[in-house]
Amino acid sequence: MKRATAIILAGLLSLLLAPPAAWAEQAGKVWRIGYLSAATAARDKDMVAAFREGLRDLGYAIGKNIIIEERYAAGKYRKLPGLAAALVAANVDVMVAAGPAAGYAKNSSATIPIVIRTADPVGKGLVESFTRPGGNVTGLSTFSANLVVKRLELLKEAVPAASRIAVLWYPRRGSSHPLQLTNLEAAAPGLGVLLLPVAIKSATDFSRVFSEIEGKKPEALIVFAAGMFEARRKRIIDFTRRAKLPAIFAYGHWAADGGLMSYGINMPALYRRMASYVAKVLKGAKPADLPIEQPAKFTLTVNLKTARTLGIKIPRSILLRADEVIE
Q1: Is the pTM of this model over 0.85?
Q2: Closest CA to 38 of 79, 89, 4
Q3: For 52, which DSSP code?
């Protein structure tokens, strides 16, 4: 009898000492995740689907033990503070913030765990360091110092005669674009390339920028990744076709939509990794102790239909390395 009593008491003690996550799981808690994005639901559709898939793989069933509150600014950054505040008011257990929304998420709460996806979390002051984030923010970085240089190399390999290459970039405060441009400028001479950077200042500036690019008479174009560019993807791709400019972009959907090439992070895979961070937090891990993960997997996409339209023959060396070739 004494032994049975001791076992019961030990069991009760283990429950009392269990972390909050364990209590919540035993009580059948429904976790609330806030998803904050500067883009639109349509633009983030594939990424959110991958995020949900990642959660399912980790044992979280949407509508059963987890609910996702989604908020989209549709390119209107002024809406982000209010959207972030609404998620805080909804008592979300974790907030997930994509791209430009990361800073607004951090500013909205110093206590809610926040999992971010952004280029330079340290440079933007979102975390203290990659290895020890500190505070209530952790997540994944989308920046690799060599990534933009690799795009330049691939574009030069696809169009060997190109010696004048324009770069479309967005000098927004806190952006990683200045650093990317510096890396490109350091690599360009070794590849026999003259870079022609063209900065865009606002969403109403595209017509001027397109005219400026054409006026510089480049033979190819690199387009940096930016939320503003994503919201106007079709317009930018149409310009490259009209100007007959071979162009390389950051993400595969740009090539799928008619761009010549893309080389960058596999975003669906990245969002599945974000799900694992959320799961760690829900199980009691502190964001301060979860290192920021840097990108490891990159995807090369080539659109042969666009290449034919531009009169370009993509080298076999590129086609053999391509993860996806669009006919």
Answers
A1: no
A2: 79
A3: H
